[in-house]
Amino acid sequence: MKQVNLTISFDEEKLSALKRYMSKRDLELEREMTDALVKLYEKYVPAPVREYIDETDTSAPTRSRRSPRPTTPKPVEETEVTQ
Fold it and tell me: What is the pLDDT of residues 53-65, one digit of tens each?
């Protein structure tokens, strides 16, 4: 899918503090924001719509639509039944 850039306004001092304390935990602001957007997407976009979007995503690796190869069943050992 085509990626877009988002622009938001945020207090400069708060952003600086956020980056400083996130770096102490080896966290990346962009990664955390992306994760938050994904959670919002999953929360508000209905599942059928997400499935449709996933199906029409041309950048996703194509999945083989062929049936999987049938497996050869293992021979079953015959046991003698006595009554």
Answer: 999 887 655 554 4
